[in-house]
Amino acid sequence: MPQSPQISLPLEKLVLKDAKPFNKGGHCLLYAHPACADLVVRVVSPDYVERSSTLLRRKFNRRFGHLVDFQRLASEFIFSHLTPKRPSFLQDFCCFVETDLGLGVVVKAERGKDGNYAPALNTLLKNGTFDDTAAAALERFFVDLLASDIIVGDLRSGNLVLSHDAATGESRFVIVDGLGEKTGIPICSWFRFFNVLAKKRHIRRIRSEISRTAPAV
Ligand SMILES: Nc1ncnc2c1ncn2[C@@H]1O[C@H](COP(=O)(O)OP(=O)(O)OP(=O)(O)O)[C@@H](O)[C@H]1O
Ligand SMILES: [Mg+2]
Description:
Layout: E1 23-24, E2 28-33, E3 36-44, H1 46-51, H2 55-60, H3 68-80, E4 93-99, E5 102-108, H4 121-126, H5 132-147, E6 160-165, E7 170-175, H6 187-190, H7 192-213
Antiparallel strand pairs: 1-2, 2-3, 3-5, 4-5, 6-7
The structure holds adenosine-5'-triphosphate (ATP) and magnesium ion (MG).
């Protein structure tokens, strides 16, 4: 009888609660994948789960609750497979995984030039390292973003990281959070015009943040 190849499936719950997250935002905790340093596991922080369980929030996000961002991310990931060319600003989504902190999203770890986790745009602005290379990468990102039909509900400087590709020596901005439509009535999905308009508004906001914090670049 032919031998089937040995594959290990992620059937067991990942244990994260004793590990230290390498980063955290307002909603999520980010962990290095315990079995693979090239991957990141993102879970909703227990604090946020607690906060989002108020009656009002339950009412608005009735079905997906605190996991609504994961549902939006999955929608854009699926949508990206229908587009002729997958935009380079999308991060590589790997899978969903069960963890001891609830459902986790596994994505590729984005790395900076120094091999550490890629810095977010707001960090570059804060520590004065937003230079000409970063500014040029950001301009390329804006062009690609407007040309694509991907929807970004929450494009902020903390949700963009400057990722470095060691093979090509190129740096590019990658959206690590905020993908998908947030409005109750999905006008950006229905009308391309509104999607472009919303993205232009996000871009204007980021530009004004840059001119406030790094006016020389
Ligand atoms: N795949 C990744 N590779 C490297 N760094 C990442 C990755 N995903 C997230 N990060 C880092 O973690 C930080 C927080 O992540 P994220 O924005 O997903 O958290 P959040 O809680 O959803 O944020 P928010 O406060 O916007 O709700 C990011 O600003 C980024 O620096
Ligand atoms: Mg974020």
